[in-house]
Request: fold
Amino acid sequence: MKKITINSFLAIISLFGVACANATTNIVVQAPSCLHNLESSDSQDLLLHSDGAGSAYLYVEQQHGAQMNIFDVTDLEHIKLAASIQTGSRGAYDFVAPINDRYELISYRDGSGTALLDLHKAKAPRTTVVEGISAAPTKLLGAAGYLTSSREIKVTTLAPQNIEVVEITDKPHTVATVANVTRQVTRSETGTTFLLNDEGISIIRRPDAEQQYVLDQHQP
Reply:
């Protein structure tokens, strides 16, 4: 990943215009229209996964579970579509919880059960239905498995809400408002938050956190 500078962010903003993104020296908010392939009205859920080798991927459920788009978000200046796969899923689902570093539990929204999303190959995930189980994990058994109970999975579906991005470095003020957000995920290493709404995915970036992450990666 090349060195990030504040000037490079401001250059991006001047290129796309105010309608595309808003920026201060501390926060950058990029709208879906800024980002190739992230502008979509057919996305239902998000999963952010790091492969343990420095790469990060954003998995986007689409077409009521039938398709998944996988974006490489390792370099936020050059986000790219890494893969688009047909999942063979039997219906729409929600990402529920990581089981270990390899699997993510998903739950079908029609109540028909659960499945494990195998992320061992980050760009080619596989789904395996867990037959007869529609309960949430109650205890992880290391990397070997997990326990469940009779308690069914209840995924909290967020009512669409407006998210305001407020900067407080000097006088508190609103940098941008992202309307009708239904899902959000955050990559803590780079201070990046991804917001999903009916227009696609907006990205809230913190240049200072990104710079620090790059420096930390190059420490001996």
